[in-house]
């Protein structure tokens, strides 16, 4: 970390805060048109018991949930170890299916493995299938820690390009603030999406929350929302092994990384968030628990949600206002450092904001709904650019947040520039916990 420490000193010589509003930028970059949806309806090398659509997610500080699908009956067993081809440990989980109109899913298997060592590569196979070995690396238990953040991913040619860029540089956990597959009622698109992301999602934890394209509610025929999403992408909402209270809903939850140095809150835009709701009351308990940890309090607290609470794009304008009215005070009082959203198919970064005005103790709001969806980009921004909006561009891409130490994180947005990743926006974010004027303990909830 010698070079990084030197870099921090150099940056400190100039500024360790976000740029002033006078540097607000609306990028003139012109993005090529959307690309066609990919066709990954079947895995030609798979038989009925071959594990497909494999993905992993964190459960507590030292366990991992492995999820996969087989077309036919197969054991919900994961065998694993730290040497390729050798699997001394084995766990058997559960199997479920779901029906959606005339569609019936494959067998959805789910097993929690561990305890696992941090920053360690594990090799595993699913359903005792000898034809496919997978591997993942557990996240580190200390800082530095790197997140990839990408929203509205879909399954187009731009999605494929974005995934290639993500895979080209190392990271620890991927965060996705909603709109995964763009299945939009066509359930086979969930299967093709699972196949598309599996090479990455089986190798690093993917922690996701839902967007509007996950609702898939049909009057009379399918009255229950999020049926496919909840069946396929189960998150640790009922985890009793973390510092945070279980939420009781797969639509909102939280987790820690780096030994508790970073606390991540995943919120639900499309489930009740009013002051009387289960989500609102859980959020208050969750953030209060973070602030009450004293010496183990998180250095950084970040939140993800689908519909942005701040947005200067004409697309989906005002759709996050109700949630902002309900929850902005809670996020502000808990000194949440950054809030990442999707929904708007463009990139935008705000300065620290509270109640619509610059505030050094407010979160940095970032919209990153530009993973590669099939609907195209949201190219019309409000003109003139409001002072609180610092950088905005209608382009596909992904972001990385490297939490370097307990006081500083480097946020970088990579534009997908004709299949080449280009750094288009970069800024250092200073932890609010390190700012005496914003001390969380002065604002206990």
Automatic annotation (TrEMBL):
Alphabetically ordered keywords of this record: Glycoprotein, Hydrolase, Signal
Signal sequence extent: 1-24
Entries under Gene3D superfamilies matching the protein: 3.60.21.10, Purple acid phosphatase-like, N-terminal
Catalytic activity field: a phosphate monoester + H2O = an alcohol + phosphate
Pfam families: Metallophos, Metallophos_C, Pur_ac_phosph_N
Name of protein: Purple acid phosphatase
Keyword Glycoprotein: yes
Sequence ranges assigned to domain Purple acid phosphatase N-terminal in this UniProt record: 51-138
Residue ranges of domain Purple acid phosphatase C-terminal in the record: 362-425
GO molecular function: acid phosphatase activity; metal ion binding
The family this protein is said to belong to: Belongs to the metallophosphoesterase superfamily. Purple acid phosphatase family.
Domain of life: Eukaryota
SUPFAM superfamilies named in the record: Metallo-dependent phosphatases (SSF56300), Purple acid phosphatase, N-terminal domain (SSF49363)
EC number(s) recorded for this UniProt protein: 3.1.3.2
Domain (Calcineurin-like phosphoesterase): residue spans on this chain: 146-347
